[in-house]
Request: fold
Amino acid sequence: MVCAAGVAAYPSARGYVSERRAPEVEVAHATQVITTHGPAALPVLVASGYIVARHSSDVGVKTGGRISVLRFEEGTRVRKGEVIAEIEHADIAAQLEAARRAVAEAEATLAQASASLEEDRRNLERQRQLMKEGITTTQSLTGAEAAAAVSEARVRLGDAGIASARARVKVAEEALENTNVRAPFDGVVIKKRAEVGETVSPFGVQGQSSREGGAIATIADLAELEVQTEVSENGVAKLTPAMPAEVKLQAYPDQQYRGRLRQIFPSADRAKSIVEVRVTILDADVHVKPEMTASVTFQEKSAGQPGEDARSGAAGSASEAREKAAGAPGGAPSPPIVLVPKRALTEVAGQPHVWVVTNRTANRRPVTLGPERLDQVEVRSGVAAGDAVILNPPATLTDRTMVRVKGT
Reply:
C-alpha cells in the first residue's frame, strides 16, 4: 500500500523538483501599435514635464500700499488693460487735486501778469509819443520801458509756473494710475496671490516669497498651452523642427492629445546635461490645465504628414496622400505593428531570435526585425502581439526548457 502511494506521488514530486530547478526569467509582452490613418508615426523619444501656458505673467503692483479693491478670483477671465485691483490712494488723490488747484492759481497769476503787461506796453507807447513831441522826459520814458520789461518777465514766469503746475498734475495722475493693477493681456486668472486689506510692495513684503515679488495674481493665456519638458543631450539629435508628438496627462492617462515640437532652447544645462524643449498642444480641451504632469512621446514624421497644417488638420492633397499611404481609400487602418523590448533579442549564427514562454516552457523563435523605436524594436514576423518574451535570456537557456516567470 505504501509502495503504491509512493509510486503515485513520484511524478508529482519530480515535477515539483524540476520546476524548482528551472531558471527564473523576467518576461515582457509584445505590444501592438495600430494606426488609424496613414503609415505609423512610431515613437522616437519619450520625455516628461509639466503643462504651462506659452504666455503667462505674475501680475504685480507698481507702488506699495494696502489693497482696497480686487476684481478677480481664480478662473476670472480678464481683458488686456482691464483694472483688476486697486491700491488705497486717498493721499495721492489729494495731491492730484492740489496740483490741479496749483494750475488754476498759476493761470490766474499769468492772466494778471498779461493784463499788467498790456497796460505797461500802452504806457510805454504813450511815453514814446510824448517824447517825440518833447512833452515828457527821458526819465519817464526809461521808467516806462523798465516797467514793460518787468511785466514781460512776469508773463514768462507765469508761463513757466503753469508748465510746472501741469507737470505736477501729470506726476500725480501717473502716481494715481500706478495704484491701478491692469491685466497685461487677455487671459484667465489661474492663481490669486493677495486679498483685500493686505499690504503689498513691488519688491514683496515679509511672508511673501521673493520670486513672487509684489505679484497679486498669475494670469495665463489658456488658448495656447504647451508642455515644458527636458531632453538629455544624447537625445536632442533625434528631434527635428515641428516634430509631431503625442501628449498624455497623468490625470487622464487614457486621453491622448496631438502635439508639435515648437522650440528647442538654444542652451543646455551643464549641471544636468539636459536641454529644455517646448511642445505645443494642438487640441487641448478643458481637462488640460497648467502645472499638470504630462508625458510627451516624440514621433517620426510619416510620409504625407502635413507640417504647419497640423493645427487645423489636413485637407485636399494632404488627405489624399495619407489615404494613398494607408493603402486603402478613405484612410483605412494600416497593418498593426508589433514591438518587443530590445533586451529580448538574441542572435544565433547572425539570425535574430527571441525566447517566447508558452505553458512555462521557453521556445526560441527566429524573427524578422524592423526599425528600432526607443528601447523597443519592430518585429515583422515570428512574434504576435501579447506573446510573453524573455528579457535578457540566460546563455544556458535551451529550447523547450521549463522556466519560472518572476512574479508568478
